[in-house]
Amino acid sequence: MSTYPVDIKSTNLTGTGTIFAGPCRILGVYYDATAGAGTIEILDNATSLCTLNTPDGSTYSHSQYLQFPGTGLRCLTSGKATLTTINKVTFFYG
To answer: N or C, fewer C-beta in 10 Å, the chain?
Structure first.
């Protein structure tokens, strides 16, 4: 059972875009790496918070789930993502 103090929402991106247009905390990501090795960069508006390297889905598992520790990655302005060679990502945020 989760102990996160707010409702958790999700958004699915198939390309670079906005996770949530306002302050939020990115709690986790689920991605499909069938397009090949790439990166998922999570930003607070224009400031990079982290970059995740994803494996080539033809060699390794096609999908992965990653949960961030604590209360997640804090976006003070707006949660955004830049996707490179990854075309299916679901972000969980609160």
So the answer is: N
Give dist(CA 62, CA 45) in Å, integer: 29
| Helix and strand element counts for the chain (H, E) | 0, 9
> Residues 17, 19, 20, 23: is their CA dihedral positive or negative?
negative
* CA dist., res. 38 & res. 87, Å (int): 10
Report which residue type is found at 82: T
Q: Kindly compute the dihedral angle of the four CA atoms of residues 55, 58, 61, 64, in this order, to the nearest 10 degrees.
A: 50
Using one digit for the tens of pLDDT, what is the confidence trace for 14-49? 999 999 999 999 999 999 888 778 999 999 999 999
Q: What is the pTM of this model?
A: 0.89
